[in-house]
Design brief:
The complex is a heterodimer of chains A (about 375) and B (about 260). With about 375 residues, chain A is of the alpha/beta class. Helices cover about 50% and strands about 15% of the residues of chain A. The chains are: A alpha/beta (about 375), B alpha/beta (about 260). At the A-B interface, helix 5, strand 5 and strand 6 of A face helix 7, strand 8 and helix 9 of B.
């Protein structure tokens, strides 16, 4: 079993839920922001010492729930602060971005880090399409084309032009090219069956987060496996990457307390205004394509369900990893047995969980979970 | 799309009669067809708003008569040169697809004075043995040719004509897929060349494009997203936009202009 330490870089100082999205930024204190960035980067670098295989981060816009508008900047810092851990950008929201710029920045990160990049190519959540003014209905088409163009930019040995539906670049030849050959490993989201099929078609690793129901997750993983096989990849457990909100403490009670408080802050304060924007996009576009009704409803229901559930409900449903080391090991075994994954992404800084609690959780992972969990 | 009339003509050359289609207005273009035979694609119709297209049928294709002295791809290139001089009246730009690309390359090598700018769409003739090619099974064949088979032209020719087209193609090609003499001659090619490949082309492998860009002094490779071996039919808008800009602006086609290309 492999493990990643993931960080969302949340803003921790809100006392009440912002009224609307985008969140008014007058409450952002840059001095406090500097403190948070410094602390978060220290924590992420510490993940290497705790035996994590990857350290990961991602991209969000116009919101205090994630302070990484461009996670590649954090990746560049981590390339200097770490030696061996792989840098997982989970990822760039490629339908919103200039794919050539993504190819270049990812190639830079791969070279800077000595070939440690995991290249996430993610569609993103609905409200990001308002932030960057991209037609949500085009999200899947843009994802498909941008992913193909990025791989071409990485692998093509001669300058080339690209005439596409969404992207036209008459002359491309990026410097640098990535260090990993033929290109860095690609990871794509598989949070619904359509996305899972696409990830398989791309022969990418698949990732799922915010799992609300193990049976639904199983269907997505089955869809991924079938699609990957149909496109020439026999997926191994390493290809199946599951993201979990996690907290390990000395006792189950402590872990439940901190994760419960952190999730409350995350869902009721940080995420509150985003739900309205997401609802708007889902109602007024076809973000989920052909199966928009079914998947749009599923997406909204999943978020609502996670918001309303107690920690006990979540543990029971297999939605979080929470408890003392033995409890967490037991929970990991259950997920592995039911879903067949070979990789857990652990997100421990949920909402405003104090940083020293997160660090302690990482140490307990290193000392009491990892030695056993490696053999899962 | 402009509704431009293409009319059928015949010219007598010293080796025999050549049938051709003509349509459009503007700077002349010699269009050399694929092994599918001459067909006016949606991309050609779009480009014909600014260019006069001359589209000769290779002798023996589409129930036309063979020319006994025209037997090889080099012979076909010589015939194309005679056609350009006799019908177009001299130099022109050349657009060629697949089998026609092989002829066009020899034409540009042997008659640099006749070829202005050259556009090659998945040109044949540089394929290593055993790579790419078309399967015999008709369903699999369609899948390899078209990324979007629903955009393929409706077939109106008889099975006999199609079989004869295939026999003629085999006769000219003479059983070779990699024309080593042509490959050796590429560095002498003078024309500015645009090489166009569909991102899903499995018929002519992409290493052929790399052989061309490595050999031709002024070559530029462009991919058409969402196209297989026949980009003119799979993605006519993208092909017309790209080729139109190249023909109009030459090497400066890479500079974006207000309102589009």
């Amino acid at each position: 079993m492999k493990f990643s330490f993931f960080h969302l870089m949340p803003w921790t100082d809100l006392t009440e839920a912002p009224a609307r999205w985008p969140v008014n930024n007058s409450g952002f204190d840059p001095e406090r922001g500097k403190q948070l960035y410094d602390g978060y980067i220290d924590t992420m670098a510490f993940a290497e010492q705790c035996g994590f295989d990857w350290v990961g981060c991602n991209e969000h816009h116009f919101s205090p729930y994630g302070l990484m508008a461009n996670c590649n900047l954090i990746g560049a810092v981590l390339a200097q602060r770490t030696k061996k851990v792989r840098l997982a950008m989970l990822g760039n929201l490629i339908p919103l971005l200039n794919p050539i710029r993504v190819a270049e920045e990812y190639a830079m990160l791969d070279v800077l880090s000595g070939g440690r990049l995991i290249a996430g190519m993610i569609r993103g959540v609905p409200h990001e399409y308002i932030a960057y003014n991209v037609v949500p209905d085009e999200s899947r088409g843009r994802l498909r084309e941008a992913a193909a163009l990025i791989v071409k930019a990485w692998t093509e040995p001669e300058p080339f032009g690209w005439e596409g539906e969404f992207y036209q670049y008459p002359s491309v030849s990026i410097w640098p090219r990535p260090l990993q050959r033929p290109h860095p490993p690609i990871l794509m989201s598989a949070s619904n069956e359509e996305s899972a099929e696409f990830a398989g078609m791309q022969r990418a690793m698949m990732a799922m987060t915010l799992i609300a129901d193990l049976k639904v997750a199983r269907r997505c993983i089955d869809a991924y496996r079938a699609s990957a096989r149909a496109h020439g990849l026999e997926p191994t457990p390493d290809h199946i990457v599951l993201g979990y909100n996690s907290l390990i403490a000395e006792t189950d009670e402590q872990a439940r307390h901190y994760l419960g408080e952190g999730q409350r802050y995350f869902h009721r304060i940080l995420m509150q205004p985003i739900r309205d924007a997401q609802r708007l996009v889902i109602q007024k576009s076809r973000f989920f394509g052909e199966s928009h009704g079914q998947h749009g409803e599923g997406f909204v229901n999943r978020l609502s369900m996670l918001k309303e559930r107690t920690i006990s409900d979540m543990i029971e449903a297999g939605s979080v990893l929470c408890g003392n080391p033995e409890t967490v090991l037991r929970q990991m075994r259950r997920v592995r047995d039911e879903l067949g994954n070979g990789h857990f992404i652990l997100n421990m800084k949920i909402g405003n969980i104090p940083d020293d609690v997160v660090r302690r959780s990482m140490e307990l992972f290193r000392d009491h979970v990892l030695p056993e969990a490696r053999r899962l | 799309m402009t509704d431009i009339l293409f009319t059928k003509h015949t010219v007598a050359l010293d080796s025999g009669l050549v049938t051709y289609l003509k349509g459009g207005e503007g700077r002349p273009i010699l269009h050399l067809h694929s092994a599918g035979g001459p067909r006016v694609s949606p991309a050609i119709r779009m480009l014909a708003g600014r260019h006069a297209f001359y589209m000769p049928a290779t002798p023996g294709f589409n129930a036309t008569a063979e020319h006994p002295t025209v037997r090889t791809m080099v012979d076909l290139a010589e015939l194309a040169a005679k056609f350009a001089r006799a019908v177009i009246g001299g130099p022109c730009d050349v657009i060629a697809e697949s089998f026609g690309g092989w002829q066009a390359l020899w034409l540009a090598v042997r008659h640099p004075d006749l070829v202005g700018q050259l556009v090659l769409q998945a040109p044949a003739g540089l394929r290593t043995e055993g790579s790419g090619g078309l399967p015999a099974d008709p369903v699999e064949r369609m899948r390899k040719l078209y990324a979007l088979p629903e955009r393929a032209p409706k077939e109106t020719r008889t099975p006999e004509v199609l079989a004869e087209n295939q026999r003629q193609r085999d006769r000219y090609v003479g059983g070779i897929s990699l024309d080593k003499a042509l490959e050796a001659a590429l560095p002498g090619l003078k024309a500015r060349t645009l090489i166009v490949f569909g991102t899903a082309d499995e018929v002519v492998p992409i290493d052929c494009a790399r052989r061309l860009t490595a050999g031709i002094p002024h070559a530029h490779l462009s991919y058409i997203w969402g196209a297989a071996h026949v980009p003119e039919w799979d993605q006519p808008d993208r092909v017309a936009r790209l080729i139109g800009a190249f023909l109009e602006h030459g090497e400066a086609f890479v500079v974006r202009r207000p309102g589009g290309t």
